[in-house]
């Protein structure tokens, strides 16, 4: 049952559900995200409920999935093994936060928003792809 086609279909379905969730929740609207991040100004707390639901769903979901012992479409779970904080992780997190705060998009919502492509979104996507290539070069 764990054929490449089944794994690919499961990935597409998960991505579709993720993108729909981002769109329905308002995470693809940079004005709403920037309003949420503007705690000293016109703060918009609506995304706090989205984040809370995501944390709750993840908390329950991980427990249910790990209770199975093995994943549905793989022989074993692929979990990160690195546990220490280093400069690369902290620097990447800082760049992510700065980019999110300046643009109102993080990578998932940016990709989910490609259907309504605007010049600022295109600039963000180009910078994101450039960042991926730079990160790969640095990691070598």
Automatic annotation (TrEMBL):
<dbReference type="Pfam" id="PF20398">
    <property type="entry name" value="DUF6691"/>
</dbReference>
<feature type="transmembrane region" description="Helical">
    <location>
        <begin position="47"/>
        <end position="66"/>
    </location>
</feature>
<keyword id="KW-0472">Membrane</keyword>
<dbReference type="InterPro" id="IPR046513">
    <property type="entry name" value="DUF6691"/>
</dbReference>
<feature type="transmembrane region" description="Helical">
    <location>
        <begin position="9"/>
        <end position="27"/>
    </location>
</feature>
<feature type="transmembrane region" description="Helical">
    <location>
        <begin position="111"/>
        <end position="135"/>
    </location>
</feature>
<feature type="transmembrane region" description="Helical">
    <location>
        <begin position="87"/>
        <end position="105"/>
    </location>
</feature>
<keyword id="KW-0812">Transmembrane</keyword>
<keyword id="KW-1133">Transmembrane helix</keyword>
<protein>
    <submittedName>
        <fullName>Transporter</fullName>
    </submittedName>
</protein>
């Amino acid at each position: 049952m764990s054929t490449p086609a089944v794994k690919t279909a499961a990935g597409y379905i998960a991505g579709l559900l993720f993108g729909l969730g981002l769109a329905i929740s308002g995470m693809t609207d940079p004005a709403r995200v920037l309003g949420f991040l503007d705690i000293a100004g016109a703060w918009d707390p609506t995304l706090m409920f989205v984040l809370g639901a995501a944390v709750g769903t993840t908390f329950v979901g991980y427990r249910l999935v790990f209770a199975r012992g093995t994943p549905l479409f793989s022989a074993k779970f692929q979990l990160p093994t690195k546990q220490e904080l280093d400069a690369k992780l902290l620097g990447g997190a800082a760049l992510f936060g700065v980019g999110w705060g300046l643009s109102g998009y993080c990578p998932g919502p940016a990709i989910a928003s490609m259907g309504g492509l605007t010049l600022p979104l295109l600039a963000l996507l180009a910078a994101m792809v450039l960042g991926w290539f730079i990160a790969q070069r640095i990691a070598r």
